[in-house]
Write a structure and sequence with these properties.
- The chain has two domains: about 200 residues, Sandwich (Jelly Rolls); about 100 residues, Jelly Rolls, CATH 2.60.120.10.
- By secondary structure, the chain is mainly beta.
- The protein is about 10% helix and about 40% strand.
- The strands form five sheets. Strands 1-23-20-25-18-16-17 form a seven-stranded mixed β-sheet.
- GO terms for molecular function: isomerase activity.
């Protein structure tokens, strides 16, 4: 990586630092093999052990979840947008108060924009270790995770208690909540009634797009995946484009705020004023605001990358339908 302060910052896939104690279900059987990665921004990790690779505010957070087969992430919700694309493997996403309102299976490259305000979870249903990349709205990602009450109860049975401050304490390791700090309050039945049970048509029809379809749409220009005019019509505080070989250009451009490049397929050469580098699938590049740059495939074959930039809108997803 170029050492200049105005050069892009790159987090290589092979250099990602996982945290296995990031969330309240870290000891719960079926969820205890998760690895959480915080790539850009503070994310929503509840553990002091979480490593943050890039702390520069972008208007959104970038993270990832790595899980072996049959490992799941428990039911939770967020106050801001949560968008995933599948980097590796085959994943089942499910939602609803009990996780039974609907589900969808995503393959590599597919993307899902999950409506704000519903409980959701996901699991790796593939045969190998899988990885999904996440985009969370806002610099503080909405202040954390809202867990379904039974997740908090199950975690306590296995020694983990979440404080009202959003920090985890492991009672089996001898940790106790600080004096004057209470456990995280569970949602009441009245509060839970405000979390809708969205149908598969509402979630999948609106917020899921398949990789091959997006590639077909990225002809002479990038496919606007998420945005006010995107194929997922939403205003979550950021826009997502899919750029392919056909829609890439070596014409340099810049943005008035930091942007992020995340290759999905192939190798990409990024050039900027003063340097260049090559990105591979799983790498994440943060491009500083106002830096002239370009990105084109550096080898033959399938090539695509996701491009993310904040819009300056409020970070809460609007779910325009």
């Amino acid at each position: 990586m170029n050492g200049r302060t105005n050069a892009p910052q790159i987090v290589r896939y092979g250099e990602l630092q996982p945290c296995k104690t990031a969330f309240i279900d870290a000891h719960t059987p079926g969820s205890d093999q998760k690895e959480n990665f915080t790539i850009i921004g503070g994310g929503v990790s509840e553990s002091h052990d979480q490593h943050v690779h890039i702390t520069t505010p972008h208007g959104f957070n970038i993270g990832a979840a790595g899980q072996p087969p049959k490992c799941r992430n428990s039911l939770h919700s967020h106050r801001t947008a949560e968008v995933f694309f599948v980097l590796k493997g085959r994943w089942r996403f499910f939602w609803g108060r009990r996780g039974t309102a609907g589900e969808v299976v995503l393959e590599e490259g597919d993307i899902i924009d999950i409506p704000t305000g519903i409980f959701r979870g996901f699991e790796n249903i593939g045969t190998d270790y899988g990885m999904i990349m996440a985009i969370l709205g806002g610099d503080d990602a909405g202040g954390g995770v809202i867990w379904a009450p039974e997740v908090i109860e199950d975690a306590a049975d296995h020694g983990l208690v979440l404080a009202e401050t959003g920090t985890l304490y492991d009672t089996k390791a001898g940790q106790t909540l600080p004096e004057g700090v209470k456990p995280m309050r569970k949602l009441t039945d009245i509060e839970l009634a405000n979390y809708p049970e969205m149908t598969p048509m509402q979630v999948v029809g609106w917020g899921v797009r398949r990789y091959n379809d997006m590639v077909a749409l990225a002809g002479t220009k990038p496919c606007k995946v998420i945005g006010e005019t995107g194929i997922i019509r939403d205003k979550p505080g950021f826009e997502v484009d899919l750029i392919t070989r056909a829609s890439a250009t070596d014409t340099r451009h810049c943005h008035d705020r930091p942007s992020v490049l995340m290759p999905m397929r192939g190798h990409w050469r990024v050039e900027w004023d003063g340097g260049s580098d090559v990105l591979a699938p799983g790498d994440t590049m943060s491009v500083p605001a106002d830096l002239m740059h370009s990105a084109v495939p550096s080898m033959t074959g399938d090539a695509s990358l996701y491009h993310i930039v904040a819009t300056g809108d409020a970070p809460g997803a609007s779910w325009l339908g």
